[in-house]
Amino acid sequence: MRITVVGEGQAVPVDADLVVGGRRHLAGIEGVPTVELGPLAPALDAVAAAQRPAVVASGDPGFFGMVRVLAERFGAEALDVRPGVSSVATAFARTGIPWDDAVVVSAHGAEGGRSLRRAVNVCRARRKVAVLTGPGAGPAELGAALAGTNRVLLVAQRLGTPEESVVEATPEAAAGKPWDPLNVTLVIDPDHAVGGPVWTSADVGPARWALDEDAFTHRDSMITKSEVRALALAHLGPRLGDLVWDIGAGSGSVAVECARFGAAAVAVERSADGAERIRANAAAHGVDLQVVHGEAPDVLAGLPDPDAVFVGGGGPDVVAECARRALRSVVVTLAAVDRVPATRRALADAGLRCDGVLLQSSRLAPLPDDAVRLSATNPVFVLWGERP
After folding, report:
1. Which of 55, 63, 376, 386 is the most buried (most CB within 10 A)?
2. Model's pTM, two decimal places?
3. How far apart are CA 92 and CA 306, in angstroms?
């Protein structure tokens, strides 16, 4: 059996004995049995029973489309794929914006609300994102979640039809508007719509991490040391689609490093000058992050739940609130040994598996005649809790 998969605008083979597709794809099909795509199982069973089936899909069926489903069921060798232009490529073409540096995400699928949440986090962290939307995960929901950010939504509706349009809206305006369900939404930082040259469309991540302290502006060495930051990042596991809180952020070094890995980062800092310092460090490293000026835990109430949290400042009440809301992990650094038991209890009481180390390091320091000595840094307790 050979299954022909055709993108929108491509011709259906004349010898097909079954055509499967959406309602609008089947509108002009005559003289051959058709199956409208709804639940996948019956449609796939019909394909299996045919001799020369054809499947019609929107745009490029290998790009977030039917090719994946068909290859899983019938094998890639059974497919003859004839792609059209993807809806994402069309949306960017209509706006005149290059998209080789864009991130493409799907806000709908088997994960339901989690898919929308991860898509929103990517839009917070990246400056050019194409979002494939779905029911309950469209421009209105994206706009509501992105309110207050420096983003513009370009909603490309009914692409390829006479009713095609591209509507520009702020997140706030998008949240309050009804939208056509057939759309691709481009979420853009208007100051970086074009961007500079790129060599790959992949999200390759930073060249190095656990940066030296002098890579950040900080006050009186009040910064998480690079050795401590390396261990913290290992347990936070920041990645594209995640949301990470940095509580008691100080210089914001942990938040900045998480953002460099692709995570959406929120830096919470109680001092006004500290908040400005974090913004300056984020700008210096070319990342977008949200800075919240306020006192934890009270200021955390208005924030979306994080995947991971770093607590560099705050007592057991702050740790307890972070542990209660963290979806994956919490990392806490402490200088005082007497605070360790209460912090461990706060993590454990929230259902997290708790572990930790006392981290002591000595750095090489120069002496005359090219000799070196060991210069000890202050020991730090690093505790972490991970949700089973």
Report:
1. 55
2. 0.91
3. 31
Question: How many other CB atoms sit within 10 Å of the CB of residue 225?
Answer: 19
Q: Could you give the C-alpha distances from 243 to 182, 208, 329, in angstroms and in order?
A: 28, 21, 11
In whole angstroms, how far apart are CA 195 and each of 14, 241, 288? 45, 22, 15
Tens place of pLDDT for every residue, the chain, 388 residues?
A: 899 999 988 999 999 999 999 998 898 899 999 999 988 999 999 999 999 999 999 899 999 999 999 999 999 999 999 999 999 999 999 999 999 999 999 997 656 567 899 999 999 999 999 999 988 999 999 999 999 999 999 999 999 889 999 999 999 999 999 999 889 999 999 999 998 888 888 888 899 999 999 999 998 888 999 999 999 999 999 999 999 999 999 999 999 999 999 999 999 999 999 999 999 999 999 999 999 999 999 999 999 999 999 999 789 999 999 999 999 999 999 999 999 999 999 999 999 999 999 999 999 999 999 999 999 999 999 999 999 9
Q: Biggest alpha carbon distance in the chain?
A: 91
53 neighbors 87 (Cβ within 8 angstroms) = no
Residue identified by tokens 């194409």 is 130
